[in-house]
């Protein structure tokens, strides 16, 4: 199975190169760095580095408190962060600057993986959430590099998708020293995929340990003063194609009852920022953008947040937050950011990426689920009109967030044990 898998990877390599070139058209910095996907980059001269792989923005955000703990507890160890997407790369640079060494993860080709590991020479590999690459995992085992999957999660859909490769993935997972799962459900799915039950522990979700950015609450309060402290404000965060139109239709319903209401709209992907802005303008809304206007004025009806990594102050300035990727079958995004700020949350029917967190928030009264696109407007309007309910939901959301903290401390204890072996 592994030989067939590797052969397939070599056969699709020309398509991978074409994909890199196409992506480079949209992102010139990524175009300059595409050789890194094949293990070609300047050797940093490291020995005994700590390597963290976080595929994109969500995983980087989840790993932030762990990375800071690694920097604190192992100040002399070089820290290597790998990502796959340009947005994940931008988030790494925004959070850590030059204090870490960033490189793109190579494709799962034997020679690419070998070059990569030879250059960073890791003492420990930490894979965040759900990245299973057989050749990479086998290469780590051959070189005696302990490998941990931290904040491990596995959705039901991913488990079904892995089914044709289950024999190969079972062998790959036996190369892993430890799987630190987010929940009992995730642990059970890793066992079904073939992981040794003895190598799995449940530690909770690191995203509960994410820090609230310094000044986020104060910045949110300042924005509310700017556009009017009594103004109804709701936020649609991390939206995808197919969701913005539903969000804007919901805002039209809100405006009929609350004509001074403001929508803060944050598309998930930077390449869609301009497209979403044009769509908002074409529907006749008075619109402003983060890149040009910085903050909305009382005259604006919709504010497009066309910037990465800047959502927390806007969550803090909102009365209610809708978290996207949930009206379409993407699986939802992080509901903990608004919860940490005591902001009530609405989600759509598709939340399988964060099913236990979302279910916990809903069960405790900190979040509510809308059945579909036609229910977003009525549900949002109802919340914006009911101050008492918003306060109850916000308090419940924040209590869930605080109660579940501590995963990073548990992970660090496991990391310490691995490094002392």
Can you describe what's shown?
The protein is of the alpha/beta class and 421 residues long. It has two domains: 25-209 and 406-419, Rossmann fold (3-Layer(aba) Sandwich); 216-404, Glycogen Phosphorylase B (Rossmann fold, 3-Layer(aba) Sandwich). Helix content is 49%, strand content 15%. The chain contains 20 helices and 14 strands. The protein has helices at 2-11, 13-26, 28-32, 57-73, 86-96, 110-120, 134-142, 156-161, 166-173, 184-193, 216-227, 244-257, 273-282, 290-293, 311-316, 336-340, 355-364, 373-385, 387-403, 407-420, and strands at residues 49-53, 79-83, 101-104, 122-128, 147-152, 178-181, 200-202, 233-239, 262-267, 287-289, 302-304, 320-323, 345-347, 367-369. The strands form two sheets. The protein has a seven-stranded parallel beta sheet, sandwiched between helices. Strands 10-11-9-8-12-13-14 form a seven-stranded parallel beta sheet. α4 (57-73) links the parallel β1 (49-53) and β2 (79-83). The longest helix has 17 residues, at 57-73. It is globular.
Question: Which homologous superfamily in CATH is the superfamily of the largest domain?
Answer: 3-Deoxy-D-manno-octulosonic-acid transferase, N-terminal domain
The largest sheet, given as strand count, sense and whether it forms a barrel, is: 7 strands, parallel
Q: Give the terminus-to-terminus CA distance.
A: 32 Å
Compute the number of helices.
20
User: Whole-number radius of gyration?
Assistant: 22 Å
Strand tally, please?
Answer: 14
CATH topology of the largest domain: Rossmann fold
Give the total of domains: 2
**CATH architectural type of the largest domain:** 3-Layer(aba) Sandwich
Shape: globular
Q: Helical content, roughly?
A: 40-55%
Beta-strand fraction estimate: 5-15%
Strand order of the largest sheet: 3-2-1-4-5-6-7
Main structural class:
alpha/beta
Pathway: Bacterial outer membrane biogenesis; LPS core biosynthesis
Domain 3-deoxy-D-manno-octulosonic-acid transferase N-terminal: 33-210
Keywords: Cell membrane, Lipopolysaccharide biosynthesis, Membrane, Signal-anchor, Transferase, Transmembrane
EC number: 2.4.99.12
